[in-house]
Design goal:
The complex is a heterodimer of chains A (97) and B (538). Chain A is mainly β and 97 residues long. Chain A is built from one helix and nine strands. The chains are: A mainly beta (97), B alpha+beta (538).
Chain lengths: 97, 538
């Protein structure tokens, strides 16, 4: 159990947890927002929260083993489970060319 | 020329000469102065006178007596002739009177013949005149009858026209009353129409005011729409600002999170700003929602005002149409009222005129009735004139003249014809039939024997209907008939009074004449039934 900076975003109905250290800023992008990362950006519908100390538990082995996406951990946010994933593996990530 | 005819009377000359001789002797002796001679002379004178008387008086007396006897005979014959002639004249037989006058002295015969001819001419003239008068009377009677009938029909027609005109007058009065009522109703309707027109005008004015207010509302709604759009723009601006603020707050929160403990308070402020931005956005959304509802309401109001405006316009149009219709109706009602008034006035005048016509027609009816009554009286007068003319005709027919219009003359000729066929009754009947063909005014001719038995008869089928049964029959006895008895008694042609014919039903009379055989004995009586109408027509 670690306390991490996590940015909670919603994209196409799914809530994602984005590690805070990857986030460089947020800009408006049409009807949504564009989350700027170090090596790209993610188009999200909305930024739900910016947590400085969200309790994140390591992902279970079964999840790590069976999910190809590197998972940083899982947490509970507002009563719902939240998966914290590297931003590069969140759908909608667009890397810098 | 005889001596008597020259006026010389010989029986008186002898005694006168003897007397003169005696007187001369006496005178000579007296002159000589002798007395004896005087006596002698006186004796001579006396003898001479006696001788002269014997010679001059006695002989002429005897001649005179013979002459007187002759004159008495002549007088007797003349008196008998005159008597017979006068009897014939009394019986109306002018040719008979002339026959009996033929043996009378010349002057008397001439005078009687002249009188008979004059009388015959007078009778014929009277006959012709009476026939003309009878014909004229019949014509006048017929014409007057037709006029009377026509006048009666005219009177009846006038009565009908009067009744119709009275009905027309009553109808006109009813029409006048109806027209007056209609005029009053039209006046009331016109007044009601005026009130209605004023009400409609007021309603139109009210609708126009409503329409104006609706237009004002629409304008205000448009203004509200414009203001709403302004508010939307402001809300968009606020939303934009809140979104920017939210982004700024997120970035601030990200930066504050990156700053660690040092940015913790800044993180709180950033969160608070982000929540404010969120609340702003929520408020904007709420305002937008309210503004949407408001806009919808305004839009509904605009639509409602547009519909109300359209409806008000339609109501206004209808109101104006109603006002125009009411105005036309008022004008029509006014015209109707004036027309009804004119009808009432005209029908009043018509009623008055009809009353005058009725009065005139009643007077006319009375005049026509008086004319009809006068014509009926005139018809009676014409009938009496006709009857009088017929009576005159019958009276003149009592004279026997040589005129073909003398029925006695005709009967005498026919009796002569029949007398030649005594005993040959079929021949007599045939001759009578032939004679009837030339005398259309005769209905029948018949012959009865001296005992009154019908021997033969002939019917003129031109005068009688062919289907009419003969009123006589052979073998029937007519001895009790007045015409038979009168013909036998007077031995002359007689005329009966008028009676209704059993054959034709028309007025007729009978001419009956005795028929004598070659020896002058009575062989029968010939009867001729004369149709008055046919006789007058001839």
């Amino acid at each position: 159990m670690i306390r991490e900076r996590v940015t909670v975003l919603r994209r196409e109905g799914t809530t994602w947890g984005l590690p805070g250290e990857q986030v460089r800023g947020v800009v408006r992008d049409g009807r949504g927002v564009q989350i700027l990362l170090e090596d790209g950006s993610i188009a999200a519908d909305e930024i739900l929260a910016v947590h400085q100390h969200l309790t994140v538990a390591p992902a279970p082995t079964t999840v790590v083993r069976r999910w190809a996406v590197p998972c940083r951990g899982v947490a509970m946010w507002n009563g719902v489970p939240l998966v914290v994933v590297d931003g590069r593996y969140i759908p909608g990530f667009r890397g810098e060319e | 020329m005889s001596a008597n005819e020259r006026g010389i009377h010989w029986p008186l000359i002898g005694p006168a000469l003897i007397g003169l001789l005696g007187l001369a002797g006496v005178a000579g002796m007296a002159a000589s102065g002798s007395g004896t001679l005087f006596t002698f002379a006186f004796l001579i004178l006396a003898v001479s006178v006696i001788a002269g008387y014997a010679a001059g008086v006695l002989r002429p007396q005897r001649a005179l007596a013979r002459r007187v006897e002759e004159l008495e005979h002549v007088r007797h014959m003349t008196s008998a002739g005159i008597t017979r002639a006068l009897r014939e004249l009394q019986a109306g037989d002018l040719p008979g009177a002339q026959r009996h006058a033929s043996g009378l002295p010349h002057e008397l015969e001439s005078s009687l013949n002249t009188a008979c001819r004059t009388l015959a001419a007078l009778v014929q003239q009277i006959q012709a005149s009476s026939v003309e008068v009878a014909g004229a009377g019949e014509m006048v009677h017929g014409t007057a009858g037709e006029l009377a009938s026509g006048s009666s029909q005219q009177a009846a027609a006038v009565v009908e026209i009067t009744a119709t005109t009275e009905e027309l007058a009553r109808t006109a009065a009813q029409i006048a009353r109806n027209a007056s009522s209609q005029a009053e109703l039209a006046t009331s309707a016109e007044e009601a129409g005026a009130i209605g027109a004023a009400a409609v005008a007021e309603a139109v004015s009210g609708v126009e005011e409503v329409l104006s207010r609706i237009s004002g509302i629409a304008n205000r709604a448009d203004e509200l729409g414009s203001h709403s759009r302004e508010i939307y723009r402001v809300l968009d601006l606020i939303n934009e600002i809140s979104q920017e603020t939210h982004i700024l707050a997120l970035n601030a929160a990200i930066e504050a999170a990156a700053a660690g403990e040092h940015g913790r308070r800044f993180t709180v402020v950033a969160d608070e700003v982000r929540r404010l931005a969120q609340r702003s956005r929520e408020s904007v959304d709420s305002v937008r929602t309210l503004l949407d509802e408001f806009s919808h309401s305004i839009q509904a109001t605009v639509v409602a005002t547009e519909e109300g405006s359209k409806e008000a316009a339609r109501v206004l149009e209808r109101g104006r149409s109603a006002a125009a219709a009411i105005e036309e109706l008022r004008e029509a009602i006014g015209n109707t009222a004036r027309a009804a008034g004119e009808i009432s006035l005209a029908t009043d005048q018509q009623e008055t005129a009809s009353d005058q016509v009725v009065l005139t027609l009643k007077e006319l009816s009375q005049v026509i009735q008086r004319i009809a009554e006068g014509l009926k009286s005139f018809t009676g007068t014409a009938e009496r004139l006709n009857q009088t003319a017929l009576s005159i005709q019958l009276l003149t027919q009592t004279f026997h003249t040589d005129s073909p219009r003398s029925l006695k003359h005709l009967a005498a000729q026919w009796s002569t014809e029949v007398a030649q066929r005594i005993g040959h009754w079929e021949a007599a009947e045939g001759r009578l039939t032939e004679l009837l063909g030339d005398a259309p005014f005769l209905e029948m001719a018949y012959l009865v024997d001296p005992n009154g038995n019908m021997v033969t008869f002939a019917i003129n089928r031109e005068a009688a209907d062919s289907s009419s049964a003969a009123p006589v029959s052979s073998g029937s006895n007519y001895a009790d008939r007045p015409w038979f008895q009168a013909a036998l008694r007077d031995q002359r042609t007689i005329l009966t009074p008028l009676y209704d014919s059993l054959l034709t039903g028309e007025r007729c009379f009978t001419v009956a004449t005795p028929i004598l055989d070659g020896g002058g004995a009575l062989a029968g009586v010939l009867g001729l039934d004369v149709n008055v109408r046919g006789w007058v027509r001839i």
